[in-house]
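Troubleshooting log. The previous structure file for this entry was overwritten by mistake, so regenerating from the original sequence record. Sequence copied from the archived sheet and checked twice against the printout by T.R.
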Amino acid sequence: MFSISSEAKVGLFVFVALILLAYMSFRVGEYGFGLKKGYFVNVVFDNVTGLDKDASVTIAGVEIGKVERISLTDGKASVTLRITPDVKLEKDVRASIKSHGILGDKFVEIEPGTKESGYIEVDGQIKRVEQQADIDKLLRELGTIANDVMAVTASLKKVVGGDEGVANLRAIIQNTRELSENLNTVVKQNDEKFSIMVSSLKNAATEMEKTFAALSDITSKINRGEGTVGRLVKDEAVFEKLDRTVASLEEISDKINEGRGTIGRLINDEETVENLNASLKTIDKSMEGINRYISKAEQFRTFLSYRGEYLFDNSDAKSYLNLKIQPKEDKFYILGIVADPRGSRTTYDRTTNGTTTHTEEWDRDQLLFNAEIGKRYKDIVLRGGLLESTGGVGIDYYAFDDKLRLTFEAFDFDTDRDPHLKIYADYRLFKHLYLTAGWDDFVSDEGNESPFVGFSIKFEDEDLKYLLTSTPIPK
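Regenerated output below.
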């Protein structure tokens, strides 16, 4: 009887095991485990850099297929996906290329769609695609930005660097501090005068309300036919009398043109006309001085403006009402009131048991005041004075025929905290309407910094005259 030794049996077993291992490796490596019976779905990307064949296809981190092949079609990457048979893709799914970490392998991520849209058929197309960012292009742009930043930094270093630059900065800060202290002194000395001015403005507003009420009453009487003007408007008999009067005036005019009567002879007699012309020339010379005075008065202009700002960080509004008086083209004065959501700040020192404490209190119902003087040099305007009840300065730059104004303001210089700095831009949308946006108190060390948007309305004295005379008064 034929027998097999133990060594032969072991060798045969190892040989069979190697054959099975080679077969399984071929199956898994060449075709992919469990995907042989899957169906194909196509998707087109602009760029598939880093994506390889047999890369994973996942939904919510779970692998549902593999990348079967990648080809070039009309300058774009056409990717064929093999999806497992038990997974159905909706027609409105979204495909994107992701990576495992920053330097990990790329894979295709599928974002599920809705069942109401139906399912993609075999060899169908995924329509919604999220393109991956071009890292090389992004790095090149970052390199360009870095070069620009280095150039700006080098320029600032040349301007500010060295003992001279530091000395200039110190001089600027010292001059600004001295200016603010002088302005605060002026404000304290004239505080009573400002109070009187505000009281006068309130009285003027009350008188204007009375005037409007009186005009409304007069208009109502005219509409009812009361008084002389009312009868002229409502009574037809008055119109008939007026027609007869006009006819009489035409008859008198005809007589004057024919040279009848004293006035007729005065107009038609040449000698009388010459004497009258000589007298008129003398009157003209007298009127020249009056005309020069009137022309100077016409150069005096006033502007009334309202400005509203919405502060995003505080979710509150800030309002300004300013009166601008401009005696010359390049010189002006500004008087105004400000309604700040924080109100007015009062500081005082309190001493208790030998210890002095610095205290601040805010009155939200207190109005703030503006009183500035300004000078214009071509497209740049310099301002200084009282800004929101504290000493400060401002600079404006005008562009595009004064349609755009860029403004920087600095005020409220206190040694215990940072100054109040504000930067914003105004753009004239219409004749009287301006849009504004900027950043208020952007260096605050008390958390008061806030971006804002808003609008402003500005009227000149001639505009106000037109509005007051053309606005209909309600009955």
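The chain has nine helices and 20 strands. Archived copy saved in two places this time.
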